[in-house]
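Progress narrative, work stream C.
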Amino acid sequence: EAGTVDMVISEGKVGIGSTSPNYALTVNAGTTNQIARFISSDADAVIGIQDSTDAVFIGHDAALDVMSLGFNSSMGVSSNVNIDTGGSVGIGTNNPASALHVIGDGGTAARIENGSLKIRYPANNDSITITPSVGNEARILAADVDTSSPHPLKIAGDYVRFTTSGSSPNTEVVRMTAEGKVGIGTTDPIAKLDIVTPSPI
């Protein structure tokens, strides 16, 4: 009949909407956006995927109203990744308080390797950029929300320094050492506050 979807079983493989299934189950919905739906009348609905070593689960927790993904078949537990109805993601928590909420176990809660961390406000401007180390310095670039010229804060092992603005700044203006000394116009302050003015021409 017109509008019906063919279902075939070929060599132990099931095809729905496909007459030549290549997998144990092949579903071809054509131009339909929603390919399939799995329905449970229980408060939680879970789908499991298992290989020869472990199983992972994705489902919905009705009480918390979160989509839960992880190795725990109990939905909504903090050991899974949980996404609430507003799109906020919780890692280590089932109740994310922000767009991304990460709670660690006492160790490193999050890590970014070989890349920069950018915080943007508004969406088209980098307000804070933390870049990988250059030499022995980590670099934090902070900018006003209405400008693209950052004012860099650079952090090394034994000092913090501010440099002039620009995408590739190289003029140091203030240095704070690990001993609690502040130098203005000098990279080697000898007092709590050491101000060195340029010699007159």
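Work stream C, second folded protein:
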Amino acid sequence: MSKRALKKYLNDLDKEQLEEQIMDLYERFKEVKTYYNFAFNPNEDKLMEDAKFKISKEYFPLSRRRPKMRRSIAQKLIKNFITLGVDSIRVADLMLYTIEIALIYSRDHTIRQVSFYKSILTSFEQAVEFIQSYGIWSEFKERIDQILNDVDDQEWVNTEAFERAILYKHTD
């Protein structure tokens, strides 16, 4: 259905029918419920706390289970933040937190999968791009420098690629 057709359909509904439609969407779709809950009670601090907890659990599970280290969990949370319209500073904070938690984990654990390093590099490139596009470089320069230092200190296989990501994206 096109936007135009949807507009015509909605204009033909009376107020009560429109309310029923919205309530039906709210009850059926988790995304709609999340959107309205955030729109009327934008508790960004709680959202951020929950997201960071979920990300850290990927590397440091509460139970004795093995860490899964899935980048996709963080990506879904970041995408959700962007969709909800969360402040760009908080989105960038979450993006860098994802990389920092991976670095904390890798400091004490040997990781042999090259895909891990490629994945974190991709996250880093996306974070740098996001931070640059929103003009918030100065707020995150120190953390980005620390990530670069940690990657270098831990002798990651793709250290140079991390450094290149900065050179191409930002000249400061």
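The radius of gyration is 20 Å. No further action is required on this item.
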